[in-house]
Amino acid sequence: MQTSYLEQEPARGEVDALAGATVIEFGAPWCGYCRGAQAAIGEAFAAHPGVRHLKIEDGPGRRLGRSFRVKLWPTLVFLRDGQEVARLVRPSAADEIGQALAQIDAGD
Predict the structure, then answer these.
(1) Residue 22 sits in a domain of what CATH number?
(2) Which domain holds residue 51?
(3) What mean pLDDT do residues 49-71 have?
(4) Edge to edge, what strands does the sheet with 52-57 contain?
C-alpha cells in the first residue's frame, strides 16, 4: 500500500493501460476524511498485497480526478486491466474496502 501521494499524477491513458488489479485513491493530505480512512484502507490492503495502489492528490486543475468524475474525498476507484469494477466514496470500514478489493484481486 502506498502511504504518500504521488508527486505527479499519471495520464488517464497510462491508467487505462495498466494490467492487473489497481486501486486509485483520490484525496488530499490535509483532508480529514482522507486521514480518517487510512487505517481501514491499510487493513484491507494487508490482505491483498498484489494489488497496485496509486494515491493521487486531487483538487482544482487535476485532470485525472476530473476524468473519473471524483466529487468527494477519499474516493477509491477499483480497476481490473484499466476498467473500473467498483468505487467507494468516503469508505469507513476495512470490510467494505476488502470486498471491493476481492472483486479485482485474482492473485496476479
Answers:
(1) 3.40.30.10
(2) 12-104
(3) 95
(4) 52-57, 21-27, 75-80, 83-89
